[in-house]
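Figure 2 data, in text form.
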Amino acid sequence: MSSEAWIDVSVPVSNGMVHWPGDPPVEIERSKSIDAGDPANLTKLSMSAHTGTHMDAPVHFVPDTAGIDALPLEAVIGRCRVIAIEDPDAVHAAELRAHAPKRGERLLLRTHNSSEGGWSLAEFDDGFVHIAPEGAGYLAECGVRTVGVDYLSVGGMETGAETHGALLEAGIWIIEGLDLSAVEPGEYELMCLPVKLAGSDGAPARALLRPPALRVPDEA
């Protein structure tokens, strides 16, 4: 299958990019350079595991649980559904209910973050659309497998711990920092592979979607 079939929904990692307040900033520097007489170019990278497009592991908010290296691949490879969230402030159970989330489903939420503010802003947007705690509780009740969002966190500035806890304690894997600005709602094939950091609470990831007509069937 041609690589042109895939839509890259990952955010490029670069110096000075938006990051969560209080987290380490992104620092990318060339520590060795062919131009400087070294035999090869070598890049030094420093950043939080929760930078740009990334995944959260249960241990991020739930002690003594799985790290990102325990991620089951079926959580991030296979059919998924992108749904449009109209509420400009938060993702609530009432709006999610209209989309009838299914048990075992991989669900990506395209909010106003993808069209207003979000990744187009140079500074962190503390008013980003997030999943309200009761919305997270509803997704847990539905038994979805994976939830992805289009900004740096599933939870808001004041309710982040509660939202994360509701999802992670239910065994839902979280993808954060997606760029869904060029993606229409509908069904896709998802591939999202985080770096396999042993025991880590999260890891940077590369996320791709394949359009419905080109989707390879699976049993999820």
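Caption note: The domain at 3-214 is CATH 3.50.30.50 (Glucose Oxidase; domain 1).
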